Every structure is written in C-alpha cells, then in structure tokens.
Amino acid sequence: MALEPFDALRRIAFLLERSRAGTYRVKAFRGAAQTVADTEPDELRSRAEAGTLGDLPGVGKATAAVIEQALAGEHPAYLQSLEEKSRGPLATGGEELRAALRGDLHSHSDWSDGGSPIEEMVMTAIELGHDYQVLTDHSPRLKVANGLDSARLTRQLGVIDAINKHLDGSFTLLKGIEVDVLDDGSLDQTDDMLARLDVRVASVHSKLKMAKAAMTRRMVAAVQNPRTNVLGHCTGQLVDGERGIRGRSDFDAGAVFAACAEHDVAVEINSRPERRDPPDELISLALEQGCLFSIDTDAHAPGQLDFLDYGCARAQQLGVPAERVVNTWERDRLLAWANPG
Question: What is d(CA 325, CA 291) in angstroms, rounded to the nearest whole number?
Fold first, then answer.
C-alpha cells in the first residue's frame, strides 16, 4: 500500500529510533516530516517535479528522495531497506509476556527531555496496540531534563484531558510523573499535585554514589510514600550507549524490595538496553520477595516505545509471571491499584 510522504518519513524516524540510530538521523526525518505537514500538497508536487524539494527547510537529499518516491506511489527505497532490517521483535523469548502487556507506565515527551510532542507519542502507542500509556515527564528539581514545576504540570494535565476527549475512550493517556527521589527520600512534587495524577514513578537521579546505608534509607522512604506506585530504574546503572558506562548505586536490595512488597509498589524492569535495570539477580530477588513489577520503556522518543521487547525477554527468562506485572492489567484495575484511597 502506497504511503503519503508524511507517513513514510514518520515511519522511517520510528524505525531509526527503534534501532537506536544516531539522534541527528532521526531529527532529519522528523524535521522533514514536519516540513511536509506544513507545505501545501500542490506545492510539494510541483517542487518534486521541478527538483527543488531541497529548497524547503529541513529537506535534504535522502528525505527529498523519500518524498519524491512516495508522491510517485512507490514504496520509498530507504524505508524498504529499514523494514527489511527491522523484521521481528527486538528481542526473542518474551513474546507471551509482550502480548499480555496493555500499556507502558514510563514515557517522556518534549515537555521535559523527550524528543517528540505528546501527540506523536500517543499516536505511536496506539499503533503499537497499547490500551493506555502513562506520560511521566520529569519533576522540577531535574533541571537538566527540563523538569515540570506545578504550573507547567497543571498545563500538561489540560493537554492530556483534551487528547483523551478527542480519543473518546479508544485509548487513554494517563496522567503521570517520573518524580525525583530527593536526598532524604521525599518526592520532588507537592502532595496535592501528586494526588491529581494517575500513576507516579519514583526514581533516583542524583547522588547515585551515596553511602549504602543512606541510599537504603532514601529509597525505602520513597517506597513508603503512599503516592509512590513504581520504583524506577533502581540501581541507576548504564551498561553501554552514548552516555557511557555507570556502575550501580549501593543499597540493601533486600530491604528496599521488602518495602516494595509491603507497600504494593511495583519494581520497574526498565527496558532500555543501555540500562538493563534492575540486573537479573535483583529481578530474581524482587521476585522472591513477592514484589509486583512494571515492564516499562522509559521512552524518550516514539520508536523507543517498542523497547518493551527487551524488558519482556528478560522478565520471561527469569520467570516473572504475567499476573505480577501491573501493566498487563486492564486500565481500571491499574488505576484502582495506583490510587487505592
């Protein structure tokens, strides 16, 4: 089936993100897609015929070829090549668990440090078959990630309401936050603001080399907070990728996971391949402790929403049962668990 130029460019950007291609390549195709959206179809066709597509902002040789081929009713060669390389899941062995997932509880938009608008993240989540997606942009202390203060978060909640009204129940964008765990274990947002949200992921982003006893107290305090639903990327490790390698935070995992089990907080299995967090042995420990889990992408771009394959493969290999993964639950059960009061 022939694709319109906008759809072809958007699909290429998704596949590049999915394959962890360089950011500059992704931006080139997403920028060209936006230019196409902003250009009248007649002008686009006349420029294609005249060979002047490259005069449009953000359109280069590769993106112009995609536009020309799509306008001619052809399947663009660049897209075809990517599709051939991208067949099948990103990781094997987690297919049953992946099929059971209904959504993703950890994702970012360009309101904080994500690369795409909320609407693009939603559109991609729908295309991947999700029933719901939780938008969890960062909290205010994380200035490097353009974290949202209460005023900006309030405005974002209005945008989410408008999106859900438009979708009319076919999919739900849930209101969330990745809230920073402060040095004393308190959460980086007011309780009133947290109460307005559907799901809260609490993560440590600073002082990752804190002494073991202090880090344990910090994490346990965050888990004990009645607003916390998910403990995000608990060790903070990075095993590869553009940001380099970073070791694990030192804490008493047994004590932290015992608190998670006691307070009904899910341990996140972060699907980003550069994180692999928690490590396998800690997932096994959390499983023994009776913890719930959430398999999330921590996506900062639409193509990364497909990273669930990685997390599901690890979880299924380690014997995590689907019924203990909260994002296999249907939306109303998830919301009742996240907001028991």
Answer: 9
